Amino acid sequence: MKLKICGMKYQDNIEHVASLQPDYLGFIFYEDTPRHFDTKIPEISNTIKKVGVFVNEEISTVIEKVNEFNLQAIQLHGEESPYYCSILRSTELFSDPEPIEIIKVFSIKDEFNFAALDPYENTCDYYLFDTKGKLPGGNGYRFDWSLLNNYPSTKPFFLSGGIGLDQVDDIKKFKESEAYKYCYALDVNSKFEKEPGLKNISILREFINKLNDKKTMNYNVDEKGYYGEFGGAFIPEMLYPNVEELRQNYLKVMAEPDFQKEFNQLLKDYVGRPSPLYFAKRLSEKYNAKIYLKREDLNHTGAHKINNTIGQILMAKRLGKKRIIAETGAGQHGVATATVCALMGLECIVYMGEIDIARQAPNVARMKMLGAKVIPALSGSRTLKDATNEAIRDWINNPVNTHYIIGSAIGPHPYPDMVTKFQSVVSEEIKWQLKEQEGRENPDYVVACIGGGSNAAGTYYHYLHEPDVGIIAVEAAGLGVDSGESAATSVLGKEGIIHGCKTLLMQTKDGQITEPYSISAGLDYPGVGPMHAHLCKTGRAEFMSITDSEAMNAGLELCKLEGIIPAIESSHALAIFEQKTFKPDDVVVVSLSGRGDKDLENYIDYFKI
Amino acid sequence: MNRIQSKLKENKKLLSIYLTAGYPNIDDTVTIIQSLEKNGVDMIEIGLPFSDPLADGPTIQDSSTSALKNGMTTEVLFKQLKDIRKTVSIPLIIMGYFNPMFQYGVEAFCKKCQELGIDGLIIPDLPVDVYHNEYQAIFEKYGLINVFLITPQTSDERIRYIDSISNGFIYMVSSASTTGAQSGFGSEQTQYFERIAQMNLKNQQVIGFGISNNETFTQATQYAKGAIIGSAFVKYVTKNGTGSINKFVDTILG
Ligand SMILES: Cc1ncc(COP(=O)(O)O)c(C=O)c1O
Fold first, then answer.
1. Per the CB 3.0–4.6 Å rule, which of A24, A184, A434, A524 could disulfide with A4?
2. Best of B77, B109, B122, B125 to disrupt the A interface by mutation (most A CBs within 10 Å)?
3. Predicted pLDDT of residue A213
């Protein structure tokens, strides 16, 4: 059943209501109502149809409004004749060639003579049944819906009149009844208002959630770039044109067939996808659960990072960018970026903290061999957070020809969403791979480590709204959550703003961002992506913290049991089996985000090999 | 009327100076402010240091890092400014990043500013629309003017929007850059200055970023009501300390 929200009036409120993704928004052009619409309609998703509501209006005025506000439907609330309706159905009148939908309203009190519909059968698209009252609509009480049991037509109709939150149960009962058969949509208005024309978002959201009967918390980004209260784009004005250009284009570009074709082709032939979903038999025996490993470590360049850089380099090319910048901590994302720049013949500049350059020499050499220029970040603590600052400064200084490839699901909107979507190929594959091996798409748990959260976002993406799939997020506890040397943001962090987004981050009481610590360079970021902050806050994901030593031991164990040397980041995800007990038939999919080649030095030092 | 608004009515070109609070030494903040006023500066931006100042170049970043090391915090700055209005009467603006204000509590922060006699705020990473939707009412309640930035890349439409919700001046960033990156203005900049001057905005403009000497000050104020000097001043006190601020101001004003 579709939903129409009628009587929209205020710009901000319209944007908020649109973020709830109704199917129709109604704008009343009838002057004698407090909900009379007389301003501008902000940009809203084109999946929402805009309906103009008129009462015995001049046809020329209706046409004018449709063209001015780019309306997709007309709702006629007066005594408009069938002839009037049929005129409006001719498409030449309107600047948009798509046929406009005509909704004819009938008001019902205690009884209704359905013969009144006959003349309109061929001149409108929908009927709308409203309660008869003093005003044409918006009277705030409902009619007896059982009258519709005698509905003689097969034309789909809108059900309207005083529908409110307290009627969810009645609506559910109505859905069981004969009358529901041709009910196409619900139309709500006055029962969801703070004042006429100003809709109450939280009550609307509750109504929608209750109606859908799901735990329908939305875990995806909304129209304004937020995940719940997290996200947004807190950027200096200097960056606004760059970020705005990306925001306006990213979904469009990603939806283009030839973009998808090129992306998928490269993932297959260049990256080596699909990556295997491997049933880890000996590990499963040891921990008495069915453990599968999603082998992102087998990708070209050795980690999941390349899924994102392939996507973004294609995006950059389509936006006409000639120069690529990136930040990197351990060098994995830097290498993945340098790789795709070599592939596409674009100039590549990677910012890397001076301290990280010293401790990740092999990756620095790789980037240089691939043709990238590695610039040391000398400010602040000279690690990942400062490399990110330097990359952002570079972007401020080069606003036109440069694209910034962010390496995780962080940064200002639309980055977290874009990176998540590029990484979502991971859970897309898990679904069919698990179906082949277990006969079902949904595991009982998906597990991933979180630095900024890109491998996790990709691993969770297609399971976010599957309530039977448990989500486990693994953070680096460093030397221990209370040791002062940790990167467990969900425990130690507070809401704040870092690198252009509102999220959980580690900071002093005074709001200065603090330096995290983990043995794994890929996890030592003081924030988490906004999606994960939302998953944490809503309780959708269970957050666990793993210390350096727990991770190192889990890494070594995987070598011994399965013959796989994991990246230390991924070892954090593997370490949860020592802490958490699963049922023997639980299917647990762990994202093995990267391979351990880059970490050999660390393993050697740690275990004195 | 807010001190910024009265100042903008004066029939002269305005010199505004940025300083990093708590730099070079923690207790220099008030002394520098007093000395700037005494030497004829029209308006002051007090930089509240932040660990990750994205819009700033190396000079201001380094001074911020030092100031934080010196022990500067929001609380400390507010304590230092407790009696500032007993000795200083020119407009004072706090310039800082959003996270420290957010942690202090935006309303509490604004209230405190009003108590101290602060006239306005510049928060580079608080976007215009978020301010407009969530915070404008609070700023207005405490009589604070929020100053927005525009750059050569800002579209005319967006400039008009920013102009419509500003009630002090518009901070014109001279070029696509972080602070301290430019030296001197080329024809690209003067064209941009001219373009903005011709838009007949409701709010007057003050140009900042890349102003470092008499020549750039004079150039900028040909097109705008005033100019802001940041990195050049921070460099000066790094090198010469706080004892000879008069010399710095004199060379700028020529
Ligand atoms: C192998 C591997 N896993 C995980 C991460 C953490 O990043 P994210 O949280 O974005 O997946 C990194 C980052 O460098 C990595 O190299």
1. A24
2. B125
3. 62
Give backbone dihedrals phi and psi of A212, rounded to 5 degrees, phi first.
Answer: -80, -10
Any idea which residues of B carry the catalytic annotation?
Answer: 45, 56
Please tell me whether residues A519 and A551 are part of one structural domain: yes
The answer, yes or no, to whether any atom of ligand 1 lies below 6 A from the CB of A455, is yes
Residues A409 and A468 in one domain: no
Rounded CA-CA distance A408/B129 in Å is 26
Consecutive 10-residue averages of pLDDT for chain A (609 residues) = 94 86 94 92 88 95 94 95 91 82 93 93 95 75 90 94 90 89 94 91 81 72 94 96 96 95 98 98 98 98 98 98 95 97 98 91 95 94 91 94 97 98 98 96 97 97 94 97 94 95 96 94 94 94 97 98 98 97 97 95 94
Residues A281 and A387 both lie in one domain: no
**Considering only CB atoms, which chain A residues are within 8 Å of B70?**
none
A360 and A426 together in one domain: no
* CATH entry, B3-253, from 3.20.20.70, 3.30.310.50, 3.30.1330.60, 3.40.50.360: 3.20.20.70
Is residue A399 domain-shared with residue A461, that is, in the same domain?
Answer: no
CA A380, A476, A452: angle at the middle one, nearest 5? 60
How many domains does chain A contain in total?
A: 3
**pLDDT confidence of residue A499:** 96
- For residue B190, the 8-state DSSP code is H
Asked whether the beta carbons of residue A396 and residue B176 sit closer than 8 angstroms, the reply is yes
Residue A218 falls within a domain, yes or no? no
Peptide bond into A274 cis (omega under 30): yes
Interface confidence (ipTM) of the complex: 0.95
Q: What is the 3-state secondary structure (H, E, C) of A529-575?
A: CHHHHHHHHHCCEEEEEEEHHHHHHHHHHHHHHHCCCECHHHHHHHH
Contact yes or no for A197/A9 (Cβ under 8 A): yes
**Residues 241..270 of A with a Cβ closer than 8 Å to B: which?**
241
What's the burial of A166, exposed, middle or buried (CB within 10 Å: 0-12/13-18/19+)? Answer: exposed
pLDDT score of A216:
59
The verdict on a CB contact (< 8 Å) between B151 and A237 is yes
Minimal CA separation from A2 to chain B, in Å: 30
Does the beta carbon of A567 lie inside 6 Å of ligand 1? yes
* Parent domain of A467: 277-300+422-607
The model carries a pTM of 0.78
Reported as type and span, the H/E element at residue A118 is: none
DSSP string, B106-147: HHHHHHHHHHHT--EEE-TTS-HHHIIIIIHHHHHHTTPEE-
Mutate one of B50, B62, B70, B103 to test the A interface: name it (highest A CB count within 10 A).
B103
pLDDT number for residue A69? 95
CATH number for the domain that contains residue A357: 3.40.50.1100
A401 CB neighbours in chain B (<8 A) are none
For the Cβ of A454 lying below 6 angstroms from any atom of ligand 1, the answer is: yes
Question: DSSP strand E in A264-357: where?
Answer: 277-279, 290-295, 323-328, 347-353
pLDDT value for B182: 67
Query: What ranges do the domains of chain B cover?
Result: 3-253
User: Could you give the CA distance from residue A52 to residue A27 in angstroms, rounded to a whole number?
Assistant: 5
Hey, are the CB atoms on B181 and A12 less than 8 Å from each other?
A: no
Nearest CA to A380 out of A492, A506, A512, A468 is that of: A512
- Name the residue of chain B whose CA is nearest to A378's CA: B58
For residue B125, name the pLDDT band (cuts at 50, 70, 90): very high
Q: If you measure from the C-alpha of residue A47 to the centroid of ligand 1, how many angstroms do you get, rounded to a whole number?
A: 35
**Same domain flag for A58 and A152:** yes
Task: Please tell me if residue B26 touches chain A, with a CB cutoff of 8 Å.
Answer: no
Residues A165 and A249 in one domain: no
- Distance of CA A328 from the midpoint of ligand 1 (Å): 10
